[in-house]
Specification:
There is one protein chain. By secondary structure, this protein is of the alpha+beta class. 32% of the residues lie in helices and 9% in strands. It is built from five helices and six strands. The strands form three sheets. The chain has a two-stranded antiparallel ribbon with strand order 1-2. It has a two-stranded antiparallel sheet with strand order 3-4. Strand 3 and strand 4 form a beta hairpin. Helix 1 packs parallel to helix 2 and helix 2 packs parallel to helix 4. The relative contact order is 0.09.
């Protein structure tokens, strides 16, 4: 499966179908804008992902939506990172064997490094896009999160999360935070800062105040 963009949510809180075709995503999201670059469907996972990130940056720049989700593949992990030298297995196989020293672990680390580079690519685009007296990144929050903590054991504990941007100074930057809670608490924290009401609950789950520049 190629990289997929989950565009938005409807008025009933149902997610619109994801799109893994950059040309379709650009037409649906950017139609009507002047001087939109040409986006093309491709079976190249790497190229598809870069096009999707370019689309995301334009969508945010022109304020066409406030929330975009970019999923690199799916839970099946069938993507094979054959543009990285030496990798000869799909991502799921590398993740399963990542707990043991050897080529698969080394290749898994190489794939994770590539993911980090993609996150940095999008962050740098937003950081170089002026908005008001700051940058688009300063007014945005990018969240990179995984499904698991330790891939080889598929544990849901110690899940790493990387955050860039600070939503007008509300989130801390340049900090390494070890905290308790779950991804629900993380989403609750973002919703709290964004001024969103709790979804589906009578009370909002606790915010992770250690992530905030001020409670």
């Amino acid at each position: 499966m190629q990289s997929a963009v989950a565009i938005d949510y409807g008025s009933t809180s149902d997610a619109y179908p994801t799109i893994n075709n950059p040309a379709v995503a650009a037409s649906r999201l950017l139609g009507g804008l002047p001087n939109v670059p040409a986006f093309m469907n491709t079976d190249d996972f790497n190229a598809t992902g870069h096009q999707m990130m370019d689309i995301v940056s334009l969508v945010l720049r022109y304020d066409l939506t406030r929330v975009v989700s970019l999923s690199w593949g799916d839970v099946g992990g069938a993507a094979r990172f054959n543009w990285i030298a030496g990798i000869d297995k799909d991502y799921r196989a590398l993740a399963t064997n990542s707990g043991v020293a050897g080529p698969d672990r080394d290749h898994f680390i190489a794939a994770q490094t590539w993911f980090a580079q993609q996150f940095a690519y999008l962050a740098n685009i937003l950081a170089s896009t002026p908005e008001g007296n700051a940058s688009l990144l300063d007014h945005t929050l990018l969240v990179w999160v995984s499904e698991t903590g330790e891939a080889s054991t598929r544990t849901g504990k110690n899940v790493p999360v990387v955050i860039a941007g600070n939503m007008y100074g509300r989130f801390r930057n340049g900090a390494y935070v070890q905290t308790t809670g779950s991804q629900l608490n993380l989403l609750s924290t973002i919703g709290y800062v964004a001024g969103l009401p709790p979804l589906g609950r009578s009370a909002r789950p606790s915010a992770i105040t250690a992530l905030l520049s001020s409670p």
